[in-house]
Amino acid sequence: MSGRRHGMIGLMEKNRKALSALLVFVVLMLFFLIANPKVFLGRDIYKAVFADLPNWIILAVSLVFVIAAGEIDLSFVSTQLLATWIFALAVAVGWNPFLGLVLAVAAGASVGWVNGLIVTRIGLPSLMVTLGMNFLLQGLVNGATGGYGISLVSLKGTPISNLLVGSLGIFPAQVIWGLVFAIVAMVIFHYHRFGHHVCCVGDDVESAREMGIHVGRVKTLAFVYVGLAAGFTGVISDLIYGTFWPVVGDLGVLLLAILASVFVGGTPTWGGIGTVTGAVIGACIVRFIQTGIIEAGFTGFWTQFFYGLIIIIALVGHKLNEPRFR
Amino acid sequence: MMTSQVKPLSPDLDRPPPHKVERKRGIIVFMDRNRRALSALLVLAGLMLVFILLGPSTFLNPLIYTAIFRTLPIPILLTVSLVFVIVEGEIDLSFGSILGLSTWAFAAAVASGWNPFLSVVFALVVGGCTGFVNGLIVTRLGLSSLVSTLGMSFLLRGLIHVGTQGNGISLTFLNDTPFYQVSVGSVWGFPVHMIWGLAFAAVAMLLFNHHRFGAHVCCVGDNPESSREMGINVPRVKRLAFIFVGIASGMAGVLSGLNNQMFYPGSGEDLLMPVLAAAFVGGTPTWGGVGTVAGAVIGACSVGVIETGIVAAGVSHLYKNFFYGLIIILAVSGHKLNEPQYR
User: Chain A window 227-266: which residues touch B at a Cβ cutoff of 8 Å?
Assistant: First the structure.
C-alpha cells in the first residue's frame, strides 16, 4: 500500500507547491494592505491589475507544459508580438475581426509548431532555438512594419471587443478568458493523458519512449500550446490598448517576468513536475508586485528589486518545503 | 584466478590494446580539436563575405573596424567568462546587472575622488563578490542557476535603480587622463580596450585549455557525480566559475563606463540576449561538459558585426533582430550537423 491519504491532508500534500505559492501571495497582499489600506481596499487597483493579468496567466500556464516537458520557450513574447501584428493587419485590411483572431492564433500555433519541429527533429536545445526565434520574430515584425503602429480604435464597442475585453461589472471580460484558459489547462495537465505524457517525457525521455509515448509529438504539442496561448494574448492586448505597436521596449522584462511567474508558482526548471494552479498564483504575485510596490509608497525604482527578492525567497521556500524536491 | 576475465588493476602488457588508437598529427588534429571554434569562424567569415559584397565601401574601410572594436571588447569579456559557467552545466543570467552594478561602483568611486586604478579594483571586487553570492546560492541552497540568477538580475538592477534614483554619473572628467589613455584610449587608431578584451580572452583560453581549473570545469559539467568521486570539489569549482563571470562583468563594466563616458542605471540591460547568443553561435552547447573560449570570441565578433553589417548592406536596422535570430538558428544547426558525436 502506498498509503494514500485522503481529504484535507491529501489535498494539501498534492498541492503543496501551489499552496506555498498561495502563502507567498497572501503575505504579499497583507503587506500591501497594511502599507496602503485605502488603495488596496478599493476597487481601482484591482481593475487596473486585472486588465493585463489574464494575459500573464494565460502565458504562464501554457509555459508550465513546456517546462514540465523538460524544455523551455523564450520566444513567446515575440510570438505574441507577431500575433498582435497579424490581427491588426487583418482588421486594417477590413477583414472580419473574428477571422483576424483565428489567423493570429493560427500564426502563434505555427510558430510553436516550428519551434517544436526544430527541437524534436533537428534535436537542438530549446533554449537556443527559442532564443533565436525570439530575435527572429521581433526583427521580422519591426522590419516589416517599418516601426509604424496600426490604430485599432475602430474596434471599440464591436462584438469582438465586447466579447474579449468588454466589461463585466467591476471586472474586465478578459478575466473570464484567463480563468477559462487556466481551468482548461489545469484539467489537461492533471487529468488528461496529454498532461501525464508531458510529465513522463520531462521526467525521463528514454523511459517515456519505451512506454510507447511519442516523445517528439508530445514536445511539439507543448510548444504549439504556448504558441496558441501567445496568439490569443496578442489579440487581447491589441484590443485592450486599442492599438498595435511594433517596437515594444521592455519585451525582455516581460519575458523574464512571466518566466519568473512560472518558477515562483512552484514549477521547477528540471522537468517532470509542474503545477498549473501555482503558475496562476505566481502570475498574480509578480503582476501585483509591479503595481503594488508603487501604491505601497515605494518609488518605481524598487519594482525590479522586489521581483528579484520574491523570486529568490519563493525558490528557497519551495526548496525547503519539499525535502524530496528533485 | 587466471580464468577470471576481469583483472582491473593488473597491467596486461602482452595483450594488444582492444582498439588501436591512432593519434592523428598536425593540421588534422588541430582541426579536430578546434572543430567548434573553426565552424564558428566559418560563420564569421561567411558573414563578413556577405557584408563586404553588399557594402564594399563600408566594409573595406578600416574606420568601420575601429568603430566596431570600440564596443566589441564588452561582449567578448562577458561571452568568454560565460563559457565557463555554461560548460560546468549552469547558466548565469545576471551578468548584465553585475555589469551595471560594477559600472556604478566604479563611477561612484571615481566621482568621489578615488584614484581611478583603485576604483577599477573596487569595481572588480564588487563584481567578484556578486558572482560569489550567485555561486553560494547555487551551491549552498541548491537552487537552479537559471532561476536564481534571473532573480539576482532583477534584484541587482532594482538595487541600482533605488540607489541611484535613476540618475547617471558623468565620467567625462576622466577624458585625456593617463588612466583613460591606458584603458580606452587608442594606439595608432586601434582602441586600447580591444587589447584588454583580447588579453582577457587569452588568459581565459589558457585557464580553460591548459589549467587544472578548466579541466575541472569540463569534468563537473560532464558528470558532477563522477567528478566528485574523482576528488574534485564540485561546489568550489562552480563558485569559482560564477566569480569569474562576476570579475569579467566588473571589467566589462569599467570599460563600458569609460567608453560611454558615463554611468547610467540601465547599463548592461540590453546585453543579456546578444551575449547568450554569442556563446551559442561560438559553439558552446547548453548541456555542459564541452565548450570553446576561442569560439566565444568569434561568436561575439559575429554578433557584433551584424548590426553594423546589415545597415551597411542597405537593410533597415529594424531587421537587426531578425538577422540575430537567423544567425543563431543557422549557427546552432551548423554546429549540430558538424559534429555527429555531439552529445
Answer: 247, 252, 256, 259-260, 263
pTM of the model: 0.83
Whole-angstrom Cα distance, residue A14 to residue A278?
Answer: 12
- CB-based contact B329 A118, cutoff 8 Å: yes
CB contact under 8 Å between B147 and A315, yes or no, is: yes
Whether the CB of A117 is below 8 Å from some CB of chain B: the reply is: no
Domains, chain A, with CATH or none? 16-321 (1.10.3470)
Q: Do A143 and B269 touch (CB under 8 A)?
A: no
Query: B55-92, pLDDT tens digit by residue?
Result: 788 788 888 888 888 889 999 999 999 999 999 989 89
User: pLDDT digit string (tens) for A148-180?
Assistant: 888 888 888 788 887 888 777 777 888 889 999
Residues A158-165: contacts with CB within 8 Å, 24+ apart?
A158/A97, A160/A97, A160/A98, A160/A101, A160/A239, A161/A239, A164/A101, A164/A235, A164/A236, A164/A239, A165/A236, A165/A239, A165/A240
Chain A touched by B158 (CB under 8 Å):
yes
Residue-range domains of chain B with CATH: 70-333 (1.10.3470)
ipTM of this complex prediction, to 2 decimal places: 0.79
